[in-house]
Specification:
Strand content: 15-25%
Bound molecules: zinc ion, manganese (II) ion
Structural class: alpha+beta
Number of helices: 15
Distance between the termini: 59 Å
Largest sheet: 10 strands, mixed
Number of domains: 3
Shape: elongated
Number of strands: 19
Length: 514
Amino acid sequence: MSNAMNGKSLKMAEGHEKYDLIIGLEIHVEPKTNSKMFCSCSADFWEKEPNTQTCPVCLGLPGALPLVNKKAVELMIKTGLALHSEIRRKTKFDRKHYFYPDLPKGYQLSQYDEPICEGGYISVSGVDGSEKQIAITRIHMEEDVAKALHAKDATGEYTLIDYNKSGVPLFELVTEPVINSSDEAWEFAKKYQQILRYLGVSDADIEKGQMRCEPNISIQKKGTWKYENGEIIPTTDAPLLERVEVKNIGSIRFMKNAIDYEFNRLVELAEAGEEIRQQTRGWNPAKGKTEFQRYKETAQDYRYFPDPDIPPLEISEEMIDSIKKEVPELPDEKIWRYEKDFGISAYDAGILVEDKAKAEYVEQIFAAANNTTEIITDAVKFLNGIGASWSNNAGKSIVESSLQPKALIEVITLLHSGDITRNAASQLVEKLLNEGGNVSELVEKLGLKVLNDTGALEKFVDEAIAENPNAVADYKSGKMNAIGFLMGQVMRKSGGSAKPGDVQTLLKDKLSQL
Ligand code: ZN
Ligand code: MN
C-alpha cells in the first residue's frame, strides 16, 4: 500500500523539524459473531429496534452469569496467528471498573494482564520505502458498552440508552509506541482492516462503527529520548513531554487527520514554552480539529480484578493447530509470491490483492493462464490499466464486471499469437468489462482479426496510393511524414485489422517503386 494514496499533507507548524513524533495505536474491532460476548443475545445490533436484543446478562442485572463466546475466542486466536502473535495457553477475564450510564454493571469485562494474544507485528513501508515492522503489544477481548442517544425536545434535553450493543464482543489491539508518522499509522490500520477481512474475522466496517481507532501521541525533542523494552525513556536530564490520546475515532482517514493536527498543536505548545498535560481529546470531523475532553485517568483508577464468575480459559494446542489451518494466504504473502514467481512489482501486486474477492479473481486469471509468466505479465497490465480505470468510473470492483477470467486470457493469447493487435486487445477488454461475451465471436463481429491476407492488404495500399496523389507527391519530395497519412488511409480501409508494421513496410516498398 503506497503512502502516495494518502493525499496532500498538512502545512507543518514552525519548528516541527526539531521534534520526533511518537505514536501508539489502540484499535477496537467488532468480530463477526452471531451472539454477544457473554450471553446468547444477537450481536447484530445495527438498525434494530432499541432494547430488543437484551437479557439479564447484557443488561447487567444482579445475579446474571456470563458465559464466554467460544466463536469470539476462536476468531481472536485466528487474528493473533495471522499477526504473528503468541497465543496464551491460559487466559482470564478481568473487570475494568468505571461508571457510565452506558455501562450498566459499573464495570466492563475485559482482559488485563493475561490477554489472549501477545506480541506480533504488521509491516508497513518505512520512510525510505523499506519494510518497517510495527510491533503489537497485545490483542485482548472485551465487551462493548451500550449506546447513549442524546436527544432534545420541548421538555428539555435527555439521554436514551439502547442496550442492544451492550455486551457485543470487541478485540482491542494495542501497538508499541513505534509509529513515527501519520502515514505509518494510516497504513497500519488499513492493513489490519485488510487482514481482518481476509480472515473473515470482521468486516471492520467503518460506517457501522465496527472499527474505532485511538492514537496516543507525543512529541519529543530530537536526541532526548529512546525506545527501550516497550518504553520511551529520556536520554538527557530534561523530563519527557506528556502524551495525549484521541479517543474513539470512527475512521482511519480521520485518525490520520487527528495525528497531523495534534503534531502541529503539540509543536506549537512546546515552541511557545507552554506545558503539555496528559489528556484525552476527541476528533471533531466537522471542524477538522481535536477537542479537549478530560485529563487522563491512570490504569489504577480502573481497579482491575479477575472476574469471579468466569473461570480462566485453557486454550489447547489442538485448538490452535486447527485454527492455524484456517488462516488463508494473506496479502503480504501473496505480494511476495507474485514478485517471486511472476516478477510482478510490489506496487502492482498490492493493487491486485486489495481485497480477498479481488485476489481470488486474480488467482483464477493466473490459473487460466496456466501460470505462464508472459501471459500473466500482460494480464496484470490490463487489470491495473483498463481494469482499474473501469473500476474507478463504475465505482465497482473489477470482480463485479462482466469480464470473465478465462476471457481475459483468451484475449491475451490472441494478442501473443499475433491474431489481434494490442489496440484491438484493449478494445476487446473494454467491451468485455462492460458487456462480457464470447471472445472469438466479438473478434469476428468487430472485425478485429489481423489482416494476414497479403493480397487484400496490397489492394488497400494500392487504393490509398491511387486516391491520394498529393500525399504521394509530398512523400516523394522528401516530406517523410506524409507516410503517416497514407498509413491511416490503409488502416481505415482494413477496418483497423491491418498490422501497422506490415502496412508501413508495404507502403514504403510500393512508394519506392513509383
Ligand atoms: Zn444478552
Ligand atoms: Mn477497550
